[in-house]
Amino acid sequence: MSEAYFPVGPGLGTEENFLSLDDILMSQEKLPGRAESSLPRLAVLLGQGAGSAESIPEGSKLEIPLWLAKGLHDSKRRIISVELPKIYKEAWRTVFSADANVVDLHKMGPYYYGFGSQLLNFENPENPEIAQTILQTFVARFRRIMDSSQNAYNEDTSVLVARLDQLERALFQVGQKGLNDFQSWEKGQASQITASSLVQNYGKRKLTEVDG
């Protein structure tokens, strides 16, 4: 029986995949910002007016969805400026560098890695530090996530995944599937062990790059 929906993975780095549900949801996350010029007919869209013709005055503080912030951001015209969400600021970067495993990423933002990578599209002097923290956080948390996924067979895993962001939850599920497939094979309930869809998709992507 074929699946009704074939999941599409998120984009990589600063790129988005508009066929990915995760990327679509991530693009709705909001950024704090400021209107550097008047924004005609955007008051309703940003929840700051009742009429479709109302404009947002210059200097107004904003909460802007990522997709709209990227569309309005123009370094030459200075339509809007964006600020860093608190979890990407220096104080939190210090916490991550001390022990990234103590942070509840899902509570702070369910798309920590993807959203943080998208912030690099905006000109900010802290971008190198943000990129480094995102990478170091992933590396620091990866082993614990995979160890947990490999040591939870036929158990309730809700507590284990509660503090993970969406990317980490996907990795946990890959680890769980690998464990379950191995257990089935070891018990003679499966004829062979197959590569995970994550590995297969990566292989297809590499072949496409070579052919291109």
UniProtKB/TrEMBL annotation:
Assembly information from the UniProt record = Component of the GINS complex.
Annotated gene: Gins3
Q: Name one GO cellular component term.
A: GINS complex
- The portions of this protein that span the membrane are none
Q: Which of UniProt's keywords are assigned here?
A: Chromosome, DNA replication, Nucleus
Q: Where in the cell is it found?
A: Chromosome; Nucleus
Which residues does the UniProt record annotate as the domain DNA replication complex GINS protein PSF3 N-terminal? 20-72
User: Ranges for the GINS subunit domain?
Assistant: 89-186
Q: Which Pfam families match?
A: PSF3_N, Sld5
Q: What does this protein do?
A: Required for correct functioning of the GINS complex, a complex that plays an essential role in the initiation of DNA replication, and progression of DNA replication forks. GINS complex is a core component of CDC45-MCM-GINS (CMG) helicase, the molecular machine that unwinds template DNA during replication, and around which the replisome is built. The GINS complex plays an essential role in the initiation of DNA replication.
Entry protein name? DNA replication complex GINS protein PSF3
Some GO term, biological process aspect, for this entry: which one? mitotic DNA replication initiation
Spell out the family assignment given in the record's similarity comment.
Belongs to the GINS3/PSF3 family.
